[in-house]
Every structure is written in structure tokens, then in C-alpha cells.
Design goal:
Elements (H helix, E strand, L loop, with lengths): L2 E6 L2 H4 L7 H19 L4 E4 L5 H12 L6 E8 L8 H11 L3 E6 L6 H12 L3 E5 L9 H9 L4 E5 L1 H12 L2
Parallel strand pairs: 1-2, 1-5, 2-3, 3-4, 5-6
Helix pairs in contact: 2-3, 2-7, 5-6
Length: 175
């Protein structure tokens, strides 16, 4: 796999409202393990859509891993207006998504729901697979893209589930 799309729950979906929440440490550890495995097997690109929460923490892990591995990071936002109404702290996070190797906007501004379908199609056509923090039992709007991933032939979707995070938490507590 050369190009990996990373997406998952938002901080709000996960009930994480403090950047010092221990859950973030656990999520980052899961991300680091998975990303290192992909990088050891020749991953060249990591793609983000600019969502806060799982994607933002994955961006932080990816930027750290760039110090050790040769790969590029892209942010492909749905709209040029993405995040324009966010507060100052979240604007700073948005800027981190823009401070990567490649930045692209699918559309100038929102016009219709069909744009999201086309955007998801574009993301899947331009990635070999995905790493997603998602659990079908806790459905959010993420199901639109994860359903499409599952229906796309020759597309590898790797899920990080809550059980995976619990295992990491248990391992950390046993140290």
C-alpha cells in the first residue's frame, strides 16, 4: 500500500474535550503502531480530510514519524471554507493540517449533498486503503464513507475498534 487515507471519529464523537485526556495517549499509541507497520512496508503518502479528533491526533503522530521515515502528508479538504467558523484553538489545529506536503480543496464552497458523495469517491479513488477509528455499533456520519470503502473492490479498510484501544490501555496498565 502506497497511499493511506486516515479518518475516524471526531473528538466530540469520542467525548474528548481536553487535549490532556488519557484517551488521546492511547489512540496515539494505536496510531503509531499501525502507521509504523504501513511505513515499514513502503507507505508513501498519508491523506487527511482535516477533521478534528482522530484525524488531528493521527496528523500529530504522522508529523513525528516523518522525523524517522520518508513519506509525505496530504490534506484534502472538502471545501475551501472548511473550518472557517472554528474557534481560535481549532483554527490553530486547522493550520497544522495546512502545514503539510500537499494541500487541496475539492470544492470552493458547499452547494449540495452530492458534493460529499463525489468527495468520498475522489478520496477512495486516490488512496489504496484506509485506517479508520470506527465501530459499526457506534454509528455516526462516518458510515457514509466506511460503507463506500467496504463496497469498493480492492480497497483495504483497516479498522481500529474500541476493543483495540482497550487492549492498549490494558497493556499500559500492566507496565
Amino acid at each position: 500500500m502506497k497511499t493511506l487515507l486516515i479518518t475516524g471519529y471526531t473528538a466530540f464523537d469520542l467525548g474528548i474535550f481536553d487535549e490532556k485526556d488519557v484517551k488521546i495517549t492511547i489512540i496515539k499509541k494505536a496510531l503509531q503502531r499501525r502507521l509504523e507497520a504501513y511505513l515499514d512496508n513502503g507507505l508513501n503518502w498519508v491523506i487527511f480530510t482535516g477533521n478534528l479528533g482522530f484525524e488531528y491526533w493521527a496528523l500529530q503522530v504522522s508529523k513525528e514519524l516523518q522525523k524517522e521515515y520518508d513519506f509525505s502528508i496530504a490534506s484534502i479538504f472538502p471545501f475551501e471554507t472548511h473550518g472557517k467558523n472554528w474557534n481560535e484553538a481549532n483554527q490553530a489545529k486547522l493550520q497544522e493540517f495546512k502545514d503539510v506536503d500537499y494541500v487541496k480543496y475539492a470544492y470552493e464552497d458547499y452547494e449540495s449533498p452530492n458534493q460529499f458523495r463525489q468527495y468520498n469517491d475522489f478520496l477512495l479513488e486516490n488512496s489504496d486503503g484506509s485506517l479508520v477509528l470506527y465501530d459499526e455499533e457506534n454509528e455516526t456520519k462516518l458510515h457514509y464513507i466506511t460503507d463506500k470503502m467496504q463496497k469498493t473492490s480492492n480497497y483495504n479498510m483497516e479498522l481500529i475498534r474500541f476493543e483495540d484501544l482497550q487492549e492498549i490501555c490494558d497493556d499500559m496498565n500492566n507496565v
